Amino acid sequence: MDDFREWLSDNLRYFMLGGAILIIVVVLFFSIRACSGSNKGNSGDGQKTTSENQGNVPSSPTSEGESDEKKEDANPMETADADITALIKSYYQALGEKDIATLKTLEDDFTPSDESKVTNLKDYIEGYEVGDVYTKKGMTDDSYVVYACFSYICQGIETKAPALTQFYVYKNSDGNWVIDNGALQDSEISAYMEDQLSDSDVSALVTKVKNELDQAQQSDPSLAEFLNGLGEEASVSTATEAADGTMLTTTDECNVRAEASTDAEILGVISADEQVEKKGTDGEWVQIDYDGETGYIRGDLLQ
Fold this sequence. Notes:
Number of strands: 12
Strand order of the largest sheet: 1-2-3-4-5
Structural class: alpha+beta
Shape: globular
Helix content: 25-40%
Radius of gyration: 21 Å
Largest sheet: 5 strands, antiparallel
């Protein structure tokens, strides 16, 4: 459960669609799975009017002859086309199957830390089921903000847990749609995505998914207990918060670095399930002794 809790904590930035989603477990599904096309694409497809899009989006607002267009009328939510839908479905299929090779082709900058977190889900999440997928124009051509309705299939729980994720996708130099793994590092892109959350069509979708989740928990107490249990686990200390001198266990094979940076020299590699003694911390890194030298391991690879 510690592995899963740490994965959830690290992925708060991946599952944010507004405060309504917090019902899942305070912070379970509230953050951004922000994937951006910063400097990698050009501006989006031609705009469609709100009237052209009516019926595609749950609770999509109508104009009713108003003289002042609402903000979302300039960038309405639309049903995703076949290519974008296929990308999202392929992503969740690979995520459920823990297919790291495929995930690396579907999103850029997929790191060893990401791989470890995906692998650690095997005891808690059986898979994912994708529902409706919607898009809004991105900041550049061939880029979109994507809203994916999906459900978690939790281990040992019959009822699925509805959820909603926001992505940013772009078309790469090979002409393929990919998910960008670093939008939150781009303040302009992340601010753009966050701004979309206030649009009424997005708010309506968030409310719809929240209601579905409420109904799922009411119909199956075991699902509610599972999610509430994860919320209780959130108070458990992470590896970086553990006291110095604590023996920690590696959750996967990991590099030992000379400094607290992924660009630092690799002193060696430690196998999964090995114990190390924490000597200190440096940001998200845990300091250890390694063959008489000071080494650093990312805290999310330790429990």
